[in-house]
Design goal:
Blueprint (H helix, E strand, L loop, with lengths): L1 H55 L13 H26 L1 E4 L5 H16 L4 H6 L9 H17 L8 H25 L21 H21 L2 H21 L2 H21 L10 H16 L16 H14 L10 H8 L20 H37 L4 H20 L7 H18 L4 E4 L5 H42 L3 H14 L4 H19 L6 H25 L4 H12 L8 H15 L4 H12 L4 H17 L4 H13 L3 H14 L4 H13 L3 H14 L4 H11 L29
Antiparallel strand pairs: 1-2
Length: about 775
C-alpha cells in the first residue's frame, strides 16, 4: 500500500509540475503580449508624431522672429523628431524586440551624414554651419540631421507585412493634403485675399513655403505623386485627391515659373511612360491620359513662354547658372574635399562673385544661395559632398527600378507598384530641380519623405532582434535611449534659448528702425544674454552703441578729457562689440566692414582708431575683393591721417572702386576731390562731369565742377552749374554770393571765406538728392 501511495504521489507531482510549466508558459506569453501591447502604444505615438510633422511642416510659421518660416520650421522639425525617436526607442525597450529596416539606401544616407558632419566640423564657421544661424537654416547640419532621423523613423514605422502598404499611402496622402492647403493659401494671396493679420503676410507673394518660385517648384515636384495616388485611390479619397491635384496645378499655372514647368514635365513624363507600359494588351485603361495632359501643358509653357496677364508677381533675384558655376569652381579649387561648410555659400559668393554683378542694381546684394543646389553643394560640401549625394541618387534609382521590375511580374499588386512609380516620379523631379534651383527647406522635407516612404514600401518585413536582459544589444539600446533623451533635452533647452534670442533680436531691430535706441539696446543685449554665439547680434549692437554715443555727444561742446570721462564705458562697449562680431565670424566680410566703420567713427575719441579702421577694412577687402564699397571705405580711412603716403593709397582704393563699378558715384567724387586738391583740374573735371552725368542732382559734384570751370576761365559753364545748385538749394546764401561774383566777372569764391576742403565734409551744406 505504501508503495502504491508513493507511486501515486509521484504521478501527482509530475502532473503538478506539468501544470506549473504550462502556467508559467502562459504567464510568460501573457507578459510578452503585455509588453508588446505597451510597446505598440509607444509605436502609435511615434506614428502620430511623424504624420503630424509631415502635415504641419509645410504650413507652419510664427510671426515673432525675423525669419518667420525656416527657423520656426527647424524648431518644429527638431522637437517632433526628438519626441518620435524617443517614443520609438521606448517601444523597443518595452517590447524587447528591435525591428530595423535594412534597406540598401541606408548606406548612402549614412555616408552623406558623415560627410556633412565632417564638413560642419571643418567649416569656415562651424557654429553657423551647425545651427544655421545667422546664415542658412535650411542648409544647416541640424536641419539635415532632423531630416535624416525623420527618414529613419518613416522607413521603420510605416513598413507593413501586408501585400498593399496602406500606411505609406496615408502618409503620402498627409503631405499631399498639406501641399493642397499651402497651394490654396497661395492662390488667395496671389489674388490679394489676405487671410492673416500680420503686416508681412499682407503682400501677394507671401506663402508658408518661401518665395513664389520655391512654392511653385515644391508643388511641381509634388503633383506627379498626387496623380499616382489618384490612380490607386477609391471613392471619397479619389475625389479629394482629384481636387487637391487641381488646386495644386492652378497654383503652378498662376506663378508660371519656367523651372517648375521643366520639373513638372519630367515628373509627368516618367509617370506617363510607366503607366503606359503597365497596360496589358487588349486592356482599356485611360488613366495615362492625365499625366499626358499635364506633360503637354508643361511643354506648351516651356516652348511658348506664355505669360499670365492678370497676375502680377514680384521679380525674384538670383544668380545665373554661369555665375553659380564659376563661384563653385573657384571655391572647390580652394577647399576641394569638404568645401567651406554647410550653409556658408555667402562667404564663397563674397570672395568669388563675378565682377560684372557690380554693374547691376544688385551689386551690393549678398546672395546666401547660388543658382542651383548642385553648385551650392559643390562649394559648401566639396567633392566628397557631391559624390555622396550622387551615390544616394544612384542607389535610390537602382533600388526603385529593381522593385518596379519585381512588382511588374505580378501586376495584381498594382497598388504598391503605382505607389513606387509616384514616389519615383516626384523624387526624380526634385533631383532634376537641384540642377536649376537651390534647395529650400520644404523641398528638403519632400526629398526625405519620399526617400523614407520608398524604403518603407520596398521592405515588406523588418529584421527582428530579440533584446535579452544583460545582452550587449539591450545595453546598447538602453544607452542610446539615454543619450537621445539627454541630447534631445539639451537640444530643446538650447533651441528654447535660441528662439528667445531671436524674438528679442527681432524686437530690438524693430525698435532701432523706429528710433528708440534705449529700448533697442535693451532687446539686443537680452538676445545676446540668451545666445552669445551669433555674430550679427554683436554687429548690430556695436552700431547701436555708436548711435547712442553720437546722440550723447550731439550739441555738446566738450573737451576730449570731458568726453572720455562721460562716455568711457559707452566707447569701450562699442569697441568690444565690434571686436566680438569679428571673433565669432572672422570669415564674414560684413563683420569687418562694421568693425572698420566703428573705429573710423571713434578716430577723434580713441587713439589708434584710424589704424584699426584701416586693418579692419583691409581684412574685409580680402574676404570680399570685388566690393567697391569696401574700397571706398578703406580709401576714406586712409584720408583721415592726411599723411602723403596714405593719400596715395587712398587714391588707389578710389580708382579700384571705380574699376570695379564704373558708375560708383561716391568713389568718383572722392577721386575728383583728391585731384582737385592736387590742382589736377582736368582729371578732377572728368570725374565730376561723370558724377553729374550719373546723377544730375548731386549738388556737391556740381559745386566742385563749377569751381573748376571758373578756374579754367569758362564762366558760362560755371554759372550754369551754380544756377542748377541754386535750384536744388534755394536757401543757400553762399551759392547766391558765388553767382553774383561770377556774373560780375569776379572769381567764384572772391570775398567768401572757405577752406576749399580736401574732403566732402567742408563743402557748404547742400541738399543731396542721392542716397548711398
Amino acid at each position: 500500500m505504501m508503495k502504491k501511495v508513493k507511486i501515486k504521489t509521484t504521478r501527482d507531482e509530475i502532473k503538478i509540475k506539468g501544470k506549473d510549466k504550462e502556467k508559467n508558459k502562459i504567464q510568460g506569453t501573457e507578459r510578452i503580449n503585455n509588453d508588446e501591447d505597451k510597446g505598440a502604444i509607444w509605436g502609435v505615438i511615434s506614428k502620430i508624431l511623424i504624420y503630424g510633422l509631415a502635415f504641419l511642416l509645410p504650413l507652419f510659421f510664427l510671426p515673432w522672429t525675423s525669419n518667420v518660416l525656416d527657423f520656426n520650421k527647424q524648431i518644429l522639425l527638431n522637437v517632433f523628431v526628438f519626441l518620435a525617436l524617443l517614443s520609438y526607442l521606448v517601444k523597443v525597450l518595452v517590447s524587447g524586440k528591435l525591428k530595423i529596416n535594412s534597406s540598401l539606401i541606408n548606406i548612402p544616407v549614412i555616408v552623406l551624414s558623415l560627410v556633412y558632419g565632417l564638413g560642419t566640423i571643418f567649416s569656415l564657421s562651424p557654429s553657423a554651419s551647425f545651427w544655421g544661424l545667422p546664415l542658412s537654416v535650411s542648409e544647416s547640419f541640424l536641419t539635415f540631421l532632423g531630416f535624416v532621423l525623420f527618414y529613419f523613423l518613416i522607413g521603420n514605422l510605416l513598413v507593413s507585412e501586408k501585400k498593399s502598404n496602406k500606411k505609406v499611402f496615408w502618409f503620402l496622402f498627409t503631405i499631399v493634403a498639406s501641399g493642397f492647403l499651402v497651394a490654396l493659401f497661395g492662390i488667395f494671396q496671389l489674388f490679394g485675399k489676405f487671410l492673416l493679420p500680420f503686416d508681412f503676410a499682407r503682400v501677394n507673394f507671401f506663402n508658408t513655403v518661401g518665395s513664389l518660385t520655391s512654392l511653385s517648384i515644391f508643388l511641381a515636384c509634388l503633383l506627379p505623386l498626387v496623380i499616382a495616388l489618384i490612380f490607386v485611390s477609391k471613392k471619397i479619397t479619389h475625389y479629394l485627391l482629384c481636387f487637391f491635384g487641381f488646386v495644386i496645378f492652378i497654383n503652378i499655372f498662376l506663378i508660371n515659373f519656367w523651372v517648375s514647368w521643366l520639373v513638372l514635365a519630367l515628373g509627368s513624363m516618367i509617370l506617363f511612360v510607366f503607366k503606359l507600359a503597365s497596360i496589358k494588351r487588349n486592356e482599356r485603361d485611360v488613366q495615362f491620359i492625365l499625366p499626358m495632359f499635364v506633360l503637354a501643358i508643361s511643354l506648351f509653357f516651356i516652348v511658348f513662354k506664355f505669360s499670365i496677364p492678370f497676375i502680377q508677381t514680384p521679380m525674384e533675384v538670383s544668380l545665373n547658372q554661369r555665375a553659380g558655376f564659376d563661384i563653385a569652381k573657384q571655391a572647390v579649387l580652394e577647399r576641394p574635399f569638404l568645401g567651406s561648410g554647410p550653409g556658408t555659400f555667402v562667404y564663397e559668393y563674397s570672395k568669388f562673385k563675378p565682377q560684372d554683378v557690380n554693374q547691376t542694381v544688385f551689386w551690393n546684394t549678398k546672395f546666401t544661395q547660388g543658382s542651383s543646389q548642385i553648385f551650392d553643394k559643390l562649394a559648401t560640401t566639396g567633392v566628397l559632398g557631391i559624390l555622396a549625394l550622387l551615390f544616394l541618387f544612384v542607389i535610390f534609382i537602382r533600388q526603385t527600378l529593381r522593385y518596379l521590375k519585381k512588382k511588374s511580374i505580378d501586376l495584381t499588386d498594382n497598388f504598391n507598384w503605382m505607389l513606387a512609380v509616384g514616389i519615383f516620379s516626384s523624387f526624380l523631379a526634385i533631383v532634376f530641380s537641384y540642377f536649376f534651383y537651390p534647395r529650400t527647406f520644404i523641398l528638403g522635407l519632400l526629398f526625405w519623405v519620399l526617400l523614407g516612404a520608398f524604403v518603407a514600401l520596398e521592405s515588406e518585413k523588418l529584421k527582428e532582434r530579440e533584446l535579452k536582459p544583460a545582452a550587449g544589444l539591450s545595453i546598447g539600446i538602453s544607452m542610446t535611449s539615454a543619450f537621445v533623451l539627454i541630447f534631445g533635452l539639451g537640444l530643446c533647452f538650447t533651441e528654447a534659448k535660441n528662439y528667445s534670442a531671436e524674438v528679442s533680436y527681432f524686437n530690438g531691430v524693430k525698435d532701432w528702425r523706429e528710433g528708440n535706441l534705449s529700448k533697442s539696446l535693451d532687446e539686443i543685449e537680452k538676445a545676446i544674454n540668451f545666445n552669445k554665439g551669433i555674430d550679427i547680434y554683436w554687429r548690430d549692437l556695436s552700431q547701436i552703441y555708436l548711435a547712442k554715443l553720437s546722440r550723447e555727444l550731439e550739441g555738446k561742446d566738450l573737451s576730449k578729457e570731458e568726453i572720455n570721462f562721460q562716455t568711457q564705458t559707452l566707447i569701450q562697449d562699442t569697441i568690444d562689440s565690434g571686436r566680438q562680431c569679428t571673433d565669432l565670424g572672422p570669415k564674414n566680410a560684413t563683420n569687418w566692414q562694421i568693425r572698420g566703420f566703428v573705429y573710423r567713427n571713434l578716430v577723434n575719441l580713441v587713439k589708434g582708431s584710424d589704424e584699426w579702421a584701416i586693418k579692419s577694412y583691409q581684412e574685409a577687402s580680402y574676404l570680399d575683393p570685388s566690393n567697391p564699397y569696401i574700397c571706398l571705405e578703406l580709401g576714406n580711412s586712409y584720408l583721415i591721417s592726411q599723411d602723403e603716403k596714405k593719400m596715395i593709397k587712398a587714391k588707389r582704393e578710389f580708382e579700384k572702386a571705380v574699376d570695379l563699378k564704373m558708375d560708383y558715384i561716391p568713389a568718383r567724387f572722392q577721386l575728383g576731390v583728391l585731384n582737385y586738391n592736387e590742382e589736377k583740374y582736368d582729371k578732377a573735371r572728368e570725374q565730376f562731369e561723370a558724377v553729374v552725368g550719373l546723377n544730375p542732382s548731386y549738388s556737391n559734384a556740381r559745386y566742385f565742377l563749377g569751381l573748376i570751370y571758373d578756374k579754367q576761365g569758362d564762366k558760362d559753364r560755371a554759372v550754369a552749374q551754380f544756377e542748377k545748385i541754386k535750384e536744388l538749394n534755394p536757401d543757400n546764401d553762399e551759392i547766391k554770393k558765388i553767382l553774383r561774383n561770377l556774373k560780375a566777372g569776379k572769381k567764384a569764391l572772391d570775398g567768401i571765406v572757405t577752406s576749399e576742403t580736401k574732403t566732402e565734409k567742408g563743402i557748404p551744406e547742400l541738399e543731396e538728392q542721392i542716397e548711398e
